[in-house]
User: Fold this.
Amino acid sequence: VSAMLAALLVVCALAAGPALATIGVDVSQATSSSAFSCLKRAGYTFAVVRCFESANRPDPACPGSVMAAWNGGMAHVDIYMFPSPSAGNPSGQVDRLLSALSNAGIHPNGAPPKSFGMLWLDIEGPQYWSKSQATNRAFFEGLVSTARSHSLRLGVYTSASQWEPIMGAYTGGSSLPLWYAHYDGSQSFSDFRAFGGWSHPAIKQYRGDVSACGTGIDESWYPAFSFNHTA
Assistant:
């Protein structure tokens, strides 16, 4: 698809409004296939499942929730990693995450329900990171380089209020898709302001800590045709 056509598709999607919007959820606890089926009926079409915790361990609920998301009818299932910067060894953290998934038979871009599309790196919580932005940048680069060595498709979850205290003016993540958080309840990118080298976001998390279908979710949105989880 040419850049001009891609841009046209985004413009058309924005002009069409909510009818062509794509909404989804992220979850950080065990979530059943029946809950995901309920979420699908409510209009959500993609899920992002936490698979690594700030406690420096793979999330034991991740494999079951990934498979439940597919079995519940989600069109796309990604995962996210909340790394542990204070523990160091970013390569080891990525490797342990992938090993835990592999042990459950789950592989990137495999056959659903034992697969996932993207790995999102959750960069937030300055209290979890070093006071040295140079140290933080090196840790982030370790996550990225290791994930790329496994041929993973990557994105970054963050916001200006989180990225800048942690990374400063660093733009080393800007080649990756951005999923940003702004809890204004609006399915729109009109609030977005450039930071960290990103001039355009891919996904917006517009509402957090929502209870739906018997589980806790955050809600995210992107204009239809503007983003591909697997390309």
User: Anything to note?
Assistant: The first strand starts at residue 21 and ends at 27. The CA atoms of residues 70 and 113 lie 5 Å apart. The first helix runs from residue 3 to 16. The radius of gyration is 17 Å.
